[in-house]
Each structure stands twice: as C-alpha cells, then as structure tokens.
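Possible race condition, two jobs.
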Amino acid sequence: MAALRVFSRNIPYLRQQFSALLGNTSPSVKFICVVVIIGYILSYSDTVVNVLSVTPGFLLPPSFQLWSTFTFWFLEIHLWEVIIDIVTVGLCGKLIEPLWGQMEMMKFFFLINVGVAFLTTFYYLVIYAWTQDTSLLFDIHVHGLAGYLAAVSVAVKQIMPDHLLIKTPLGKLTNRSLPLLILVAAIILWAVGALEGTYPCMWGSGTILSWIYLRFWQRHSSGTRGDMADNFSFDNFFPTVIQPLVRGALSPASRCLARLGVCTPAPRRVTLALSPRGVTISLPGVEPHDMERRRQIALKALSERLSKTSEQTRQKNLTTKVNMDTVRKMQASHVIPQFSTVEVPEASSSKPQSVPETTLVDISTEPSAPTTKTS
C-alpha cells in the first residue's frame, strides 16, 4: 500500500516527464509507445498472451502461425519492461530518426522484430533437438521488445562508439561495450531466476541481426550499402584482450559468406582525390557523413578537455593567490626592529659616542604608538 501511495503521488511528475520525452518525437515513435502500453494492459489475460506471442512449436509447420511475428513485440507482462521500452524508443528515436529518416527507422523496426522471432525459434529448436524436451517448443512464449532494444544499442554504438556513459573502478563504460555487457547481465539474471530465458535469447538475436543489417545491407543516401569501418567489425563488440581470438575464429565464416554473396568483403584500398581544399583521402568503409559526425564528436571532446584544463589552471592560480595573501598577513603581524643613535657622555672622553637605540615598531593591521626602549 505504501508503494502504491508513493506511485500515485508521483503520477503527475511521471506524466510530465513522459510528455516532455515524447513531445517532439515522430508519429511512428508515438505509435510504438502507445501500442506497447495497450499490449501491457492486454497481457493480464493468459489467452491473449498465448495468442499474440510467438510459440516456437506453433511457428513451425503444421501450425505455421506467421502472424504472431507481427504481434509478439508489443506484448509486455512487466511494468518495468514497458517503462524501459518507452524511454529507450523515445530517446533513440530522437537520436537515430533524424539521421536515417522515418521510413528507414520503421523498416529497421519491422525487419529486426521479424528476424528476432525466427532466430529465437531456431535457438529453441536446437535446444529441443539436444534435450528432447517438448516444453521448450510449446510452453515458451516469446514476446516483448528486447530484440529491438538490442538492435537500437548496436545502432547507437555505430553512431557514437566512444561516447562515455559512466566511469567505474574497472574502467570506462562506453556505447562500444553496452550490447555485450547487457547480454552477459541478462544471462546472469536468467541463471539466478530473476529473468525469463527468452530475454537473453531475444537480446542476442537482436544484436546479431542488427549488426548484419547495418554492416552489409543498409542503403545510404550516397548509394552505398553497409558500414565497413574497422571500428564496427564484430570483434569490436568484445574486450580488446580477446578481439584477436574472436577475429581468428570468425574469419573463415566471413570468407565463406563473402564467397556465397551473403555479405561483401571489406575493401582494402584507399581513394585519393584532388579538391579545391586540397587532397581528400577516402578510407574504406567510412562515409562522408560518418567522417563529419566523428569530427564533431572529436571537436566536442577536445573542447570539453580544454575547458576542464582551463578550469584547473584557474583554480591553481586562485589557490596560489590565496596562499600569497596568507603569507603577507603573517608577515604583517610580526615586530620589525629599527635602530637609531643617541649621544651618551663618557668620563674618560670629552667627545660623545653613539650608542644604538632600539625602537620596536608594530606594523600590524591595528595602528598603535611606537614603543621606544633605550639601552
């Protein structure tokens, strides 16, 4: 009851935040968010879950329920999944859709979801062939946007690979390592019983399918296909230490797929061209818009670093000035001796001799009359 009261009090704030999030998004993003909310309401019925979700045994012949591949994605049964779906789709829609366009965004959405349905079914079919457990085919229900969220994380990695998310004691977390990190976390949560087994399967399927599409098949405005940049290779998803092992294990498969025409081999030539501004160098797999985007990111990072350095220098100069003022105040509080001469007669001589007279002058901040002592 206490949690329900807290949630009810925060409803106006949550409504305001969601309105700000979806205020400037396109109709396609709003449509996805509204349909996900409707699917969550319908998920309270077990019959609706069985009908709308993908069941691996029913997707295969003789049932062949292909229509479930177009309905399973908006069916979420947990509120936290609905919130994550809406926030991710809204934020990434503002980031990706201006670069790709609305049609390309919706094409990417439907291709990934349909592919996730078939690839996840293939996973369970392989596990069934190994274990002969029929419950894997008829008691498993694949639903949700986990595969599409994985695809979006791969697209964000392609656009901003080195964007810093958070600093940890083990190192920096960037968009480059986000897809694999979430997959490992999902597998761990499934192993301890905190997450359904379909979630890591869908996340892995979405990661693989989105990388294949963005790497080889996506058509750009310049007429080219894919992104053959070195920092978007499949081994780049893994930590630097094991990248050579992954590259060596996948190179035979990539060569076979290239011979079959499924994917194109990476170009190995560098194009030089003369322009009014000088010599233009075109690297393999790097598009002009990608180069401009990375240049802007580099300039932003350089500007942040220079501002940080100037701030540190200003703080250092301010500290030095404060220290000098403290030293001057300490010196002003001391007593400085001053000497003068007075004439003292002697019995043995008629000429006066000079005897030093000590005058102690206090030069502190408060004015006071000098004290003179004669010895």
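Job #2 (started ~2 s after job #1):
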Amino acid sequence: MTAMEAKSGFDVSYDFHPCYESSNVSKTLRRTSSTMCTLFYIFLGLLSVITMCGNLLVIISIIYFKQLHTPSNYLIISVAVTDLLVGIVVFPLNMYFSLSSCLYYRDFICKIRDSFDVILSTTSIFNLCCISVDRYYAVCHPLTYRSKINTGIVLVMILMSWGVSVLVAIGFIVAEVNQEKCKENCFSDAVLEKVLAPVLSFYLPVIIMLYIYLRIFLVAQRQARSIQDTAKSAVNINNVERKATKTLAIVMGVFLMCWLPFFLCFSFQLLGGVSVSVYETLNWLALSNSMLNPFIYAFFYRWFRSAFKMIISGKIFQGNFPNTKLL
C-alpha cells in the first residue's frame, strides 16, 4: 500500500477517473479530454442545471404566492435554498476539483470544496429531519400543531440546522488537518472524521426520521380506522393505508437510496482499500438527492404544481397573482 493509500484510506493503484490519468512511475496526475470525460461532464452539468431549476421553482413559488407563506413551507424553502446552493456551488466544485485530483494535490481549494460539501449536504439532511418533525405534529397532534410549530420555532429549526452543519464541517476539517500533520498516531482524528461526523450528520438524523415517520404511519392507520368505525364513512381503509405507505416509502426510500451507500462507504474508509471510483460514484448519487427533493417535497402537492405551471408559463408576469387561490 502506498503512503497516499494509507493516509487517505483509498485504493488508488489504478486509473480511477474518466477525466484523469495517473502515472505509477512518476506518481503524477494529468487531465484528459476523452469522449468519456466529455460525456461525464455533460451528464453532471445536466444534473446541476436540473437541481438549480427545480429548487428555484420551489423558492419562487413560496415567495410569490401568499397562500404558501406557512411555517411548513418555510422549512421546504430552507431545503430548496440549501439544495440550490448544492447545485450552484458543490456540483461545479466537485466536477473540477474531484476527489481523484484532491488525493494528489491536497491544496486550499480542495479544503474549500470539502467545507461546502459537508455544510450544504448536512444542512439539507437536517432540514429534511425538521420537515419530519413538522409532519409529526401536523398528523399526530393536529389540535396543538399551530401553537407548537409556528414561524419562530421554524426559524430556530433552520438556524440550528445551519449552525450544527457548520460545527460538523469545522470538526471535519480540523480532524483532516491534524491527520496531515501527524505521521503515525492519527487514529483518534480518523475516528472523529470517519465515524463521529457521519453519526452526527447522517445516522442520527436518519434514526430520528425513521422513528417519526413510523409514528406518523401508525397514527394515520388509527385515524383511518376511527373514521370508518365512528362515521360509517365510505373511505376505503386499504386505499388510505396503501397511500400512506407509498408516500412514506417514497420519502424515506429515495433519501436512504441516495445517502446510505455513501455514508457506509465513508465510514468503511477506516478499514482501508475503498476504491476511489466507487466512492466518487456514491458521492454523486448522494448529491443527486438535492435534485430529487423538489419532486418529492414540492411536486407531491397539487398547489405547488399549480404554482409551477403559472411560473413556467409566464402567467405571473401577466397580472397580479400573489393572492391567487391554488387548488
């Protein structure tokens, strides 16, 4: 194992990126302009554009239409702003200063890239966790929902999401710098970087979200049975339960599909031998969650779809639509 492999935990013994070539003799890295590299950048560029456009639609919709000025939607706009910055900042930085190049040239720009990556990605995850808390009170405690979740509480949630993310990023960078300074006794810093940081920024929020959505699902089942038993409603309980299951499966399934493989791989770096190509692929899969969030948390609602249609068609420039009733 080379010194670079031992230090980073990655297996870099072969050409690992479509846009770079490494020399086993001179231990240098040079860019290539192959067809595969061009297609790779076009694909990632499209992901970035879709991410920016989708989240811009969400932001404009909530800001423009007064009907959407609610505490719940402030959380959604926080997610959209975070994911928009992922599309604007993290995507381009990760495209040009990839993990492959940063393993060879660990300069200041690579640390900046890592900082934005950690802060924005972690904030996006925390915002999704806050949305699950909001949904829990809306479904499980509807009578006290407006008093428990108001604009002030939501602003505190948003500030905490950003604040904790910045602290996690600072800890991550400090641990990384310490690893660069020390020669052999870096195990504690490696544990901090590859175990504690993922626990705080991913595993803990995931456990909280899974627990909350399970509670929501169970309460929704009880409410459906109560409606059927007390009101003799014609509601088909099987359809209600199926819809609730499908909604929660989409929310958590897509989230876990995007993020879990990356964080598992990130943690396993401690054992060494993680392929750079695998790690980078999983990193892009995780970042793609920022592109999917507008579809999951906004397109799912009919009033957002109506707002999007008005924006895309240009109707908002043809008259006074802020007070328009959205379905």
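Residues 1-7 have pLDDT under 50 and may be disordered.
Logs attached separately.
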